[in-house]
Amino acid sequence: MVLVSSLTPVFVAVLCVVIVFLLKSIQKKERGPKTDSTPTVKSRPWVDQDLQDDTEIIKEEEDGDWADSEEDVPHIPYSPRRYADDVMLRRSQEFYALMNERRSVRSISPEPVPREVIDNVIRTAGTSPSGAHTEPWTFVVVEDAETKHKIREIVEEEEEINYKQRMGDKWVKDLQRLRTNWVKEYLDTAPYLILVFKQTFGMHASGRKKTHYYNEISVSIACGILLAALQNVGLVTVTSTPLNCGPQLRLLLRRPANEKLLMLLPVGFPAKGATVPKLTRKSLDDITVFI
Amino acid sequence: MVLVSSLTPVFVAVLCVVIVFLLKSIQKKERGPKTDSTPTVKSRPWVDQDLQDDTEIIKEEEDGDWADSEEDVPHIPYSPRRYADDVMLRRSQEFYALMNERRSVRSISPEPVPREVIDNVIRTAGTSPSGAHTEPWTFVVVEDAETKHKIREIVEEEEEINYKQRMGDKWVKDLQRLRTNWVKEYLDTAPYLILVFKQTFGMHASGRKKTHYYNEISVSIACGILLAALQNVGLVTVTSTPLNCGPQLRLLLRRPANEKLLMLLPVGFPAKGATVPKLTRKSLDDITVFI
Predict the structure, then answer these.
(1) Which of A100, A215, A241, B32 could bridge B64 with an S-S bond, Cβ 3.0-4.6 Å?
(2) What are phi and psi of A267, to 5 degrees?
(3) Which of A177, A86, A156 has its CA nearest to residue B117?
(4) Which Pfam families match (chains A, B) (predicted)?
(5) Chain A closest-CA separation from residue B81 CA (Å)
(6) Which of B72, B89, B120 to mutate against chain A (most A CBs within 10 Å)?
(7) What is the pLDDT of residues B242-284, one digit of tens each?
(8) ipTM of the complex
């Protein structure tokens, strides 16, 4: 009895230590994931919300065939134009030659571009397929000089942080050699900035939330068709995804919270004396497997 | 003293209960997220691995300008063909008209298609921009009837599970009216199946893991250009993302673990009597905001 009672304080002490240890380990588990995904949350409000894409989450619920969940609509015959084999071959060669001339260009001329051409280019992007035909894209075309400059200020502020804090010295040196830094003059000079937003969800007439299946993939496909349409008319752009600027740009352009910036494309003619890095592309054999 | 010692058992009992409770809560926290993301892990091996896209994770480390991390390469002058305004306008109208005729087609004719045309279509997709010019795509073109049939078996087995277990009765009824179910005959009849894989990472010559920035967005853009190239030669396809089939198809086609299936495109001429749902597309005003 005396033994036991003399041990009581030890019991309590040991068990308290155990409890404290367990509590700490719980807190770790709670904090762990969060800190992984928001290392810079203070300097970048809502950045997670906007980088996060709910596409993955809902994949489990979705059938993989993109048009399957269309409402009950009548079917109509479909017989598109058919080309002879030699014509197909020629067309495929010509289109490849045209697209193979496309390069990402950062020196964009301030020369004006007909607005009707931009309209048609965006109409073309809008023909893209999308998960369950949700057409989850919004193209914000900025022509207004003041708004373009505000966009430049937001992007350059974030980019400067990227260069000075996020990227290693070696990388920064490489970029200096590439004459690339956080200064994005094209955001002022390009006659148009096209900011492509993905609608992460929509609304049913009933007001119920409408799932936008694969919205990021769908909008990216639309961007591919947009790039083809720009190349087809001799306009240039550079595919940029301004890091952490999405939320600020969304607010500047007054887009709703269900829309997240996917890409920013400055559009125009190449500036006189524009240069591009001398790069090669992988050959057909490097990117294709035939079975 | 007597009081304390008589309380000792109580102390121990209470504190043991507390400890057990804390242990349980730790286990919950550990299990929680996992079960969320792997509800069907038993019937679908590695499905998480393959659905998971590490693009989001690495965004934090990346500069948003896609070509910035190219190695130090010389720059060369770039002056693409320039069209007069009226030519640009005409070309933009014609390309829009052509792309606007594109529809997702599920009835594909077994008629042969010249292999050179498919080569050029894939070459064209390979001109797509990609994060840091990583070109993170592999196009597996399946012409072999036996392999196509194995692909069909894998897809239909999974699709049947989707229809019977994942989708609600109403949805399934809608699909019956749409004459759509888990039977994907086009996987046998189409002369070519193009399976598009995203390379989630690459390898440096040194053997070090090479980050493929934005690989899913890059490959999706390439798919958009692929769709444009197919439409340009009068071939049809349907953009499908076979749910949970990626891992099995990757093994069937012997692709390495860093490659994940993004899309499966059956390619050919439309079958005689092919129909498509009578759908409309959003107007320019519905998808564009001008500022």
Answers:
(1) A241
(2) -125, 135
(3) A86
(4) Nitroreductase (PF00881)
(5) 6
(6) B120
(7) 878 999 999 999 999 999 999 999 999 999 999 999 999 999 9
(8) 0.77
